[in-house]
Amino acid sequence: MKEVLTPELITSLQELSQTLDIYDAIVFDLGDVLLNWDSVHFTSEIKGIGDVRKMVKHPVWQDLEKGLIDQEHALTALSCELQTPYSKLKELLKLSVGSLKVNEFMLGVLKALHEKEKKIYCLSNVDLESFVYLYTHFDFWKYFNGIYVSALLELRKPNPDIFQYIISSASINPKNTIFIDDKSENLQEAANFGISTLKYNKDNFEYTAIDSGWPIPLQNITPEVHKKKALGETYLNLRLRKFPFCKSFVSNNVQLIGDEDFSKEIFSTAVILHSYTSLPNDIIESMCQEILNHDGQHKLRWCFYKNEARPENFPDDLDTTSMVLSFLLNHNKLNREGIIPVAEQMIDNRNVEGVIQVYFDDNRPRIDAIVAINVLYLMHQIGYGERNELKETEAFVFNFLTSNEYLKGTRYYPAPDVFLFFLSRLIVDFPDKFEKFYKPLTEMLIARVNCSTFPLERALRIIALKKLGIVNRVDFLKLLDTQLEDGGWPVYGLFIAPRSNTYFGSRELSTAFALEALNLLS
Fold it and tell me: What is the pTM assigned to this prediction?
């Protein structure tokens, strides 16, 4: 029999602050803690539909919160179960979510913890559509180190697996963690893992401190992930040591079915160097040396192709050049002063609308939103980001995102998730410069979860969302399942030559992104 601990009543802000100061990590619930809602007075009395809480306690709603069913199908099923018209249930849900207001007292607590540099996490049962609404209508998300919502985890409180997962994923020590929630069953399950608890009752808190002898044993839930990661690293490192230029393939379909060995382009190598953060030093050095041996027709400019494969009169491009220079700068292979002349050439290379072009060649007036992003990234690295000549390029990227043009892909990158990934890299690394991008980008990424089945696209969504603080376990589990027996992931055409409809890709590229996703979520 476990000892039943008696909660201590906390009634003042001072007591609350003193209690929270004890802990390194604080986990917040949303509903009835950080957000207040009144289903009875706001919806039921006005619309006469019945208490929304009855709806959310139904098993169908629980499946919705776990992301196993979408809102439309859930409301259809609930309409049958509750004998209430679909339209009324939909209106009830809209009114209920719309009634949510920030609990100013708890927001103040959250801000104070953030200022003290505590590790702060959100753990909430919420369906995907409602989460998107909440994310775009409230500003407190920036205070969290990690956001764990049931619809992106396929887990919900009080299932013990969700507590196992956040402990493992966030690398938190239960002894030094406290969980704030309004439901006893959720708090009890957290306590079973040795997490201290605060039950929020609007007027006071019931504080239960868990001593070191309390928790049930934690299962080791990561060995299978670590095994897959080790197998993937072995595969990738072996391939890249053999082919420092990763071995790319071409085909006229995105899955590269019936592909042909190409291996004569530089860009895949640059992408791997820039995007996969766990390469051994010897591989990095050999890949760097290969790239430096293949700079373009002008010093510190590169072409998509290797020198020996470059078509006649084919120009250097800003995409490959910006990716390579950005990596070399990050790894102290070049200094800022050495890059400035090329950066000036890039800035001068704009079309009549003022947008950065793809090629160092006025006879090829092409633009591409991802190329623009990669050039903007380099410009911010070297302190050129505020140059007036770049304003039209930034506006072009923003419009490409908010107009949903990205859903069609770009000229050279056919998948929407590739655009969202490269954009996430830009706004996370330079947050003060791209603040207006943050919410629309996050909204688009959340909406894309599980939208496509290609492993590389799943990996891109996992990485991008994690950079924004949101854990995407849905795509993560499916990414694990698509690893092949040799440790690598399937080949995929990341980019395309539009005139010939030729896709380029490699297993090394797919595997590098998959491993980066595993690193971030394991």
Answer: 0.91
